[in-house]
Amino acid sequence: MASKLVYVVAVIVVIVVVVAGLGVGLHLFKPTSSSSTSGNTLVIASSATPSSIDPAVAFDSYSVLFDDQIYQTLVGYGTTTLNGQTVGSLNPVPELATSWVINNTTGAITFNLRQNVTFANGDPFNATAVKFTLDRVIQMKQGADFHVFSFLNESGIHILSPYQIEVVPSSPYPWFLNLFQLWVTDIVDPAYVNAHGGVQNGSVNTFMADHAMGTGPYELSNYSASTITLTANPNYWGTKPNVTKLIFEVVPDPSTQQALLEKGSVNLALNIPLSEMSTLQTYSNVKVKAGPTSSEYYVGLDENTTPFQNLDVRKAIEYAVNTTAITNYSTFGYGLPIKSVIAPTIESYFPAFANYTYNITEAKHYLSLAGYSNGFNAKFYYTSGDPIGTAVATILQSELAKINVNLTLVPLESATFDDEAGSGTWQMFYEGWVNLLATPDDGMRPLFNAAYQGIYGNYNFFNNTTVSKDLIQAGKIYNQTQRDALYHQVQSILAQQAVEVPLFNLENVLPMTTNVHNLYIYPTFDIYFGQVTMG
What we know:
CATH architecture of the largest domain: 3-Layer(aba) Sandwich
Distance between the termini: 34 Å
Mean pLDDT: 90
Radius of gyration: 23 Å
Largest sheet: 6 strands, mixed
Number of domains: 2
Number of helices: 14
Strand content: 15-25%
Helix content: 25-40%
Structural class: alpha+beta
Low-confidence stretches: 1-37
CATH class of the largest domain: Alpha Beta
CATH superfamily of the largest domain: Periplasmic binding protein-like II
């Protein structure tokens, strides 16, 4: 799935490797039970190595996957029960901070830090390490740093004692606490970083790209282009992991990953197409786990192009698209239909698009109102090699032909799609959106605020003064009831303006061998192994 370009607001869209449901996610393991045995090895097949495992730089799925095992943040995620299974939740839980107090007036947070914690090399974790980490992210200006510097600067970070630190937001932000769940705020070892290149303003530290020193359950023991090995951190403060070695094998071909999983040569495969999951479930030694996420996938309608600046044309498309059929056909049962521009897992979700039901008669009516009774020709862009995007394009072409809208399908390489999607020249396109902070602000402000038209996130070139004002205002309100009212109004306007065609929330899908237990599905596409058991 193509990613959006970086925009300077607290939201990120990442490359979601849809063929297996892997994507970038949030953070880390809080141990809840003791291991029964240890010494197990878990082998994971993935299609590529990470670009950088430096948390301040990491931006792709594979990089964050490693950060989640090695490093930790102040605040983690809890678990809940869904359909009788334990799954990850978005609720903040203690990680390297044992507790926190939020000032209801200023939004400042005072974190009480966990004591007697060290990095894997024995260096101490304390408030100095937290301040060093946050200062470093702001100074380096890399990766997902905009999450941090949009709402925090160095003057707002105050050490109160060796194990207490205060962070003061630079502007009101109701979800300020959530920033400290993101991998970009993973706590690094100041002594280790300073001994290997230190911090340079606006620059990466090349050493930290393939070296690491964290407080998490695993440490890096081997890094190569074909294999990366993590071993249990001997100085880990929490419950010692049952799986003491993680081996990541680079296996570019999905069919090879599938064959290795069937043989039991790997325990988890990250890039097998969703179309193969039904086959995998026939293997006696394989199981498939899935759960809802914070993602939203949609058909974009660029109002900067003809004829999509016409509201009646956009409404015609809404009625002509059979979103249920597209979801079932393209996601192989792993897409959950949605009726708004954010996922149902996100605060303030409101099914504002529910009135757009599949109705060819209504679609033709609105085309006639727009002056296009005989239809028109249009181009539809999507990422080549993405089986879901390809399926969406194929069925959409068939559906719109019924109202004489003739689609020319234009598959593009991922890098080209990323570079050109916000150019304002594409009439229609298929895109995905993953909320890392899992907030309505993440899900709507960059996509629909007029200030972010084009490469900054608003690919639809949507411009509505009320929506832009409400999105900015809602993102500063601490009272959730008042926030919900504004966000519901925004979603209603977006539906009335037929700004896009919402399709589905894509589940996080993980195929694994049956001897792998307690690998939880998180809404943020996170994958981590500290609590996993084998046997």
